[in-house]
Structure formats: structure tokens, C-alpha cells
Amino acid sequence: MTYVFDLGWLAQYYPVFLKGVAITIELTLVGGVIGIGFGIFCAWVRALGPTWMRPPVAVYVELIRNTPFMVQLFFIFFGLPALGFRMGELQAANLAMIINLGAYSCEIVRAGIEATPKGQFEAGAALALKPLQVFRLIVIRPALQRIWPALSSQLVIVMLGSAVVSQIAAEDVTFAANFIQSRTFRAFEAYFVSTAIYLALSICLRKGLDYLGFFLFPSARTESR
Amino acid sequence: MKRRSLFSLALALAAGLSFSLSAAPGARADGLETVMSSGTLRVAVPQDFPPFGSVGSDMAPQGYDIDMAKLIAEKLGVKVDIVPVTSANRIPYLQTNKVDLVISSLGKNPERDAVIDFSDPYAPFYNGVFAPADLEISAVEDLSGKTVGVTRGSIEDLELTKIAPEDATLKRYEDNNGTISAFLSGQVDAVATGNVVAAAIIEKNPPKRPEPKFLIKNSPCYVGMNENEPELMAKVNEIIAEAKSDGSLNAISEKWLGIPLPAEL
Amino acid sequence: MTDFSTWDILRNLLLAARWTVVLSFVAFIGGGIVALLILFMRISRNRFARAFARYYVELFQGTPLLMQLFLAFFGIGLLGIDVPAWLAAGVALTLWTAAFLAEIWRGCVESIPRGQWEGAGSLALDYVQQMRLVILPQAMRVAVPPTAGFSVQVVKGTALTSIIGFVELTKAGTIVTNATFQPFTVYGLVALLYFAICFPLSKYSKYLERKMAAAYTHGR
């Protein structure tokens, strides 16, 4: 038996991949924006927020960072309905990604906040700014700038990790590969193509985040370029 | 510099798309010869598909398909190696030569027939749509506006994809675990699966009972094997015929399905 | 039909967790060895070795581990080599781990000040001696905390092998869910078991980090 690498099925099935790419991008964008926003909030709580809020946030961060994404996803999709919280696979996937990225970006952003020189807080206070204003106007932007590369890498990791949402029937790129595999029995080719798609996506995402950083943090331009 | 390397990598991959790989794993001997010389029959069985294959509280596989695998191995006089697989990957297992036979409640259809061979049928199987009693569904048209869980790549998936109304949503899960969990946790309104599978679920008194709604297809189970293995095929068919006439297959049916083997099989 | 008590559920999950631990060890140790090779290529003076290492890291960090598992499992099989699930899982996880560890360690090597290289060079040490005697011993100390931290990612990465049919903790969870119809309990327990494995590793890595930071500031 000679194995022939055959991509002839692509002509018929490429729309499945296109749809998968759209879903993967949607999940990454929604998960990324809300997840990082939530992460910034949690980072604020852990670094500067009210003391009573810190332990619950710490527990959340540790729980998420020390369990696999897939188990979190299964728990939300299959487990939570037992408590009466039921949601569709896309909502469950979005929620799982937000919760997951929220915990990771919390730790990353917190490192950025804690690296802020003390003098900046003092200067803010001297200008009669309230603590939240100091955070919003003075601290957060340089903090994000400091940790932007780490945050970008984390977002790429989350995008690649989203491959498992196919397990709850969300129709992303991996679902497309599995779907085509079960119709054409061209397993290797289907996974090969989807791997190439993910590689292209992660290259684009990283490039896009570099540009975004370029626009968000004008002061960095002279330093690094 | 770094960016350019990323692009050239992407380009190299794109170029790779057009190659034609012809790795010949050597002319493969007939499966029967391989089995007899190794003294082991490797069989792909389900582990998430009661009563054909599931696990007991000791996690050991049990069910109709497992007994069938044991029966064939015994008649061949070799040891049996039970390999648990999912619905979606059982045919790749065969194609990549990880198993000699697939005994995994496998139904026959043209797509599968094009890539593997089938023995004579060894078990009855009817698949249909199942849903809680209060959901009114009596024909495929009634699925309109409903979500139905199926296992990706199963006969139910392939058939229902063809006949389901436009506005019915099919949710395709990786394996039967996913499909059944999705139904029981209320993620889908109905499931398309085998009659015996639904019966086995009901027997365990689940929170939601999958009652039969309508029949999709009468699709008995076959033993699957790689193409061009005439000797293995002949031997397996011989064993199935023998098991049908001496009553041992009937005993397996009684044990797991609770019904005698249907005469038309 | 068999009935599962909560103890049965936990017992089966614990038994399966063994394989999560074994697989993590294999991936971590195998990955460490491959990572060393990649690291040496990455910082070598040979252009092709450097390029290879860069592409390797780019490829494995730029694609989902799940796809790597699928390709290892079904792809290698098509070449006529029989790959059981545990082997495919071990190989894919090893290669994936290696890509990340190599990058982490490269960062550590590069964090060694240039003066150390120059000093070693002025002592007439050759490249291998510079690495072995001066750079690596220092880099290794810096590398311990992030390496311990990454082991948590390896443990969590093993969860994906359930999808290609390797019966470890997550797979046992899905199987047991279907035999018991108690997804909330089962996945809750699965998550707790992962936490029990990963949390001590995370804490240990944080502790090492703090210890090193303290040593660093006192040293000055």
C-alpha cells in the first residue's frame, strides 16, 4: 500500500475551514479583549485593591493556573448545567477562555504594576489624584508597556489552546479538521492543513499585537526601534 | 530579521502543501498471516458505547463488541488485544495499522466502504432520534428548530446530515461520551444514536430519559478490516457464520441486548 | 450495569492520575534532553544549526499541541510505523516541551552579562570550556525557577493526550462521567486532582524565584 498525500478534498471542503478560521478568530478576539480586561481588573485588586477582595481573586488565579484548560471547559459545559447554568458551546468556549486568560494576564499585569517606581505613586498623590486615578492615568499604561511581550505570548498560547473547544462541538479550525477527517478519512492531510492554518494565525496574531503595541505605547518607539 | 524568518517558514510550509508523499510501508502481508504469526489479534472496540462497549467500576472494557472480539480470537487460537477507540478515530486506527479488526458497532455506508472492507453482519443495530417524552417529535421534519447531538462521523451523523431540515442544528461531538453528556446535561434537545444505546442509558435512570422518537436507519454492525485481505475476511466470515449457527452469537445478544439474535441477520 | 460509588469514582480517577504523572515525567525529562540539544544549536556559531533551532521553536510554539498530537498519532502511522497512543503522546509532548524549555533556557544564557564571556575568553578558554565552566553553571542557577514553573504547563499539557485515546486523568473523567452521569462531581474531582499535582509545583517555583531574587540583592 502506497500512501499518497492527497489534498484533492480541499476543493470541496475548504468552506468548512473558512468557517473554522472565523470561529477561532472570534473566540480569540472576544476571549482576548474581555479576558485581558478582566485580568487588568484582577491585577489591580491583587496589587492595589481593597484587602478583602484579594483572597478570592488569589484563589481564582491559582485554581485556573493549576488546572488544564480542557478540564475547565468540560466543567463549564458539562458540569455547570447540573447547577442550572446552561449555555451553548460558543458561550461556554468564550467564558472558559475569558476565565483562563483572565487568571494568566492577572499575574502578568500585576508584575508590570509592581515594577512601577514608588515615586510615580507619590507624584500622583502630590497632584491630589485619587488612588484609582493614579492607577488609571499614571500606572497602567507604562505597566502594560512593560509586560506587553509577555501578554502577547499568552494570547498566542490561548489562541492555540482554543483547539480543544472542538471537544464540545464548537466549530473551530480543529473541528473542521475532525469533521473532514470523518468524511474523507484523510486524517493526516486534514491535520496537516489545520496545523498550517494555526501557524499562519499565530504568526499574524503576534505581528498584529506588535503593531498594536506600537500604537498603544508611542514612547516605546524610540527605545526599541 | 525575526519577522522575515517567520515568513520564510510560512512559505516553506505552503510549498510543502504540494508535495506527494509516497512512503511504501512494504507490501503488507494478508492480515490473517500477521495475526497468526504474532499470536495476537488487535481489535478496536468502543469504551463509551454501552452495551456494545463501556467500562465497569474496575475500568475494564465490557460489552457485546468485547465479547465478539474475544470470540473471534478464541476461534483463531490467538490472544486478544483490546484497543479502546472512539467513534471518530476507529477507521484511522485501522488505516494506520494500529489494529487488525474494528469491532466497534460499525455500520456500513458507501463512504466507509470506499476505504475499508466489511465482514458479514454480527449484531443488530437500529439508529434513531431519541428525546425526552415531553418533546414532540415523530418524524425528521419535527427536528426543525431543535438541536440534535450526534457523534461525529457516525452513521447517524452522515444520514441525519442528509435528511435533517435546514433549520435543525446538528451538534457533532468527538465521541459518544460527549454526545451522551451533552444530552444529559441539556446541551441538546435530542440525540441521534442506536436504540440499544438509548435503552442502556434509560436503564441507569438518568436525569433525562432518551425515549425513542423515530427510526433513521436499520444499520447492523459489521467487522471492519483493511482492504485486500481476502484470507482474513474469509476466516472472520466463517467464524461469524459458525457463531450464528451454534448459538454462541445468540448468547452474546441475549446477554447484552436482552433480545435473541434477529433471524434476518 | 455497574454502579459507581463516589469512592469508585475517586479511586478510578486516582489510578488514571498515575498515568498523568508518568507521562509528565517522561515529557519533562525527554523534553529537557531535546531542549539542551536545541539550546546548543540555537546559541552555536553555525548558521544552519541556529536557523534549524529557531524554526523548530517557531513551529512547535506556533501550532497547537493538540495538532502535534494528532499528527504524531495518525501521521507517523501512515508511514507504516505503528505508533501506540502512549508513544505518540510521549513523543509529541517531549518535542513540545523541548521547544519551550529551549527558549526559556536561551533567555537564561543570554542573561549572563557579556563581560563573563569576555573574561572567560581572556583566560584563553575555548568555546566549549567557556560554556561549560563559566556560562552554563551561572545560567543553570537562573534557569531553575522558570523551569520548575514550566513543569506545571507540562502536567496540564498531558490532558490533551486524552483526545487521542490515552487513558489518563481527563480521559478517565470523561469515561467515568458516562458511566455515572455525574459530570459536575467527576469534572470537579478531576480539576481538584490536577490542582493537587500542579499547585505544589507552582508554589515551589515561586519559592525558588523569591530565594534567588533575595540572594541576588544581598549579593550586591
UniProtKB/TrEMBL annotation, chain A:
Note one Pfam family from the annotation.
BPD_transp_1
Q: Which domain of life is it from?
A: Bacteria
Describe its membrane topology.
Multi-pass membrane protein
Sorted alphabetically, the keyword list is: Cell membrane, Membrane, Transmembrane, Transmembrane helix, Transport
Kindly list the biological process annotations in GO that this record carries.
amino acid transport
Q: Where in the cell is it found?
A: Cell inner membrane; Cell membrane
Mind telling me which InterPro entries this protein's record contains? AA_ABC_transptr_permease_3TM, ArtM/GltK/GlnP/TcyL/YhdX-like, MetI-like, MetI-like_sf
User: What stretches pass through the bilayer?
Assistant: 21-47, 67-85
Q: Which GO terms describe its cellular component?
A: ATP-binding cassette (ABC) transporter complex
Q: Where is the ABC transmembrane type-1 domain?
A: 21-209
Q: Name one GO molecular function term.
A: transmembrane transporter activity
Entry similarity comment? Belongs to the binding-protein-dependent transport system permease family. HisMQ subfamily.
Q: This protein is called what? A: Amino acid ABC transporter permease
Species for this entry:
Pseudohoeflea suaedae
UniProtKB/TrEMBL annotation, chain B:
> What residue range is the signal peptide?
1-23
Q: Which GO terms describe its cellular component?
A: periplasmic space
Compartment list: Periplasm
Boundaries of every Solute-binding protein family 3/N-terminal domain copy = 40-260
**Known Gene3D superfamilies for this protein?**
Periplasmic binding protein-like II
Q: Which UniProt keywords apply?
A: Signal
Which PROSITE patterns does this one have? SBP_BACTERIAL_3, TAT
Task: Name the SMART domains for this protein.
Answer: PBPb (SM00062)
Family the UniProt entry places it in = Belongs to the bacterial solute-binding protein 3 family.
Put simply, this protein is called: Transporter substrate-binding domain-containing protein
TrEMBL record, chain C:
Major site of localization recorded for this protein: membrane
Which terms are listed as keywords in the entry? Cell membrane, Membrane, Transmembrane, Transmembrane helix, Transport
Q: Where is the ABC transmembrane type-1 domain?
A: 17-205
User: Which GO terms are recorded in the biological process aspect for this UniProt protein?
Assistant: amino acid transport
Q: Which residues cross the membrane?
A: 20-43, 55-79, 85-105, 142-164, 184-202
The answer to whether the entry has keyword Transport is yes
Identify one Pfam family in the record: BPD_transp_1
One GO cellular component term, please give it: ATP-binding cassette (ABC) transporter complex
What would you give as a GO molecular function for this chain, any one?
transmembrane transporter activity
Coiled-coil segments on the chain, per record? none
> Would I find Iron among this entry's keywords?
no
Domain of life where this protein originates: Bacteria
Q: Where in the cell is it found?
A: Cell inner membrane; Cell membrane
- Membrane topology value: Multi-pass membrane protein
Q: What SUPFAM superfamilies would the database entry show?
A: MetI-like
By sequence similarity, the record places it as follows: Belongs to the binding-protein-dependent transport system permease family. HisMQ subfamily.
Query: What protein name is recorded for this chain?
Result: Amino acid ABC transporter permease
